[in-house]
Please model this.
Amino acid sequence: MATLIDILLGVKLQNCDGDSTSTGKRSLSKVRSTTLSSAEAAFCMHKCFLDVLKSKSAVIRSATYSLLTSYIKHVPHVFDEETMKKLSPTILGAFHEKDASCHSSMWDTILVSLESFQRLGHIAIFTKLSSVDFGISYKMDAMGPNKSHILF
Model:
């Protein structure tokens, strides 16, 4: 699912030549619209994939981290304040991941979420909820919000 979201929502496909350009654009628009609505429905239906992250299988957890990364990159509007309250402790709770086979996708999720949520203005919610549990603090220096640091 993460790969489909990345391909269908994240990759800019080359334009078709000739008369098929408008038909191709309409088809692409329809595919992206369908993908987006399906992704939104799956996110709600599976409760932000929180239960899947508790799986005993490292492969499933790793795939779920990748899926969350794809959502953060390409479907960021599903992360409203209520969702952030549920998801923030779980994402930063990934620091407790013991299986090394999950670490690459886990770090991708953590770093992309910190970057994206800062840009979307959710960083205050994200760090406020998580700093208590994980000892993480967020500091904005005098250079502004684009020069922020996460302190561990």
Q: What stands out?
A: Strands lie at 137-140, 148-151.
